[in-house]
Design the sequence.
């Protein structure tokens, strides 16, 4: 960690540290990592990562590089003035993995981002739910509106306790403020596209 040098604009530095911290927190959440998981992946202590996320630490370039590695982003993304090339296209091989679950995993759902980022008004995900996948223990509820369409397989969508069985070609639109969960009680994976507005982040 570095110290604040004499003559440095402390207000500007504080703003930069807050921006970097917010970015680390946002990307970590997008990737579905806990603070402890990011710390381990970055070879940093959880306390340091926590301080950085809260804008309370002034990290060295080496520390930022370690964080960038852990978050799987270019280290330059942390610096003022850096912008990523904006492309409206997301290639199938380049989708952002939101849960850290590989496509080859068994027993866990795969969530991949179909929109370029989560900064717009909508978020679209490609979700593969394996047989036996069940989120009823942790129901979702958030603002906005949600839409889903099943590409292949079959899944049960529960809206406030009421089951809706969706097969390939079926779609559903609902207010996600009500508790909702998903169960694949069938013998094959369910591949579906889910769209939320605003992004759930």
Sequence:
């Amino acid at each position: 960690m570095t110290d604040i040098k004499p003559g440095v604009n402390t207000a500007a530095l504080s703003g930069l540290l807050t921006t970097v911290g917010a970015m680390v927190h946002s990307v970590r959440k997008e990737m579905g990592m806990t603070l402890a998981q990011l710390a381990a992946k970055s070879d940093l202590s959880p306390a340091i990562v926590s301080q950085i996320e809260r804008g309370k630490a002034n990290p060295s370039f080496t520390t930022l590089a370690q964080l960038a590695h852990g978050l799987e982003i270019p280290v330059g993304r942390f610096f003022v003035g850096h912008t990523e090339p904006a492309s409206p296209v997301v290639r199938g091989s380049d989708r952002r993995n939101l849960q850290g679950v590989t496509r080859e995993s068994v027993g866990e759902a795969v969530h991949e981002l179909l929109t370029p980022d989560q900064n717009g008004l909508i978020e679209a995900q490609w979700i593969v739910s394996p047989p036996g996948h069940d989120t009823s223990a942790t129901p979702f509820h958030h603002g906005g509106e949600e839409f889903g369409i099943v590409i292949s397989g079959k899944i049960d969508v529960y809206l406030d306790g009421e089951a809706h069985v969706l097969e390939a070609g079926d779609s559903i639109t609902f207010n996600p403020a009500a508790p909702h969960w998903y169960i694949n009680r069938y013998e094959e994976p369910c591949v579906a596209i889910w769209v939320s507005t605003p992004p759930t982040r």
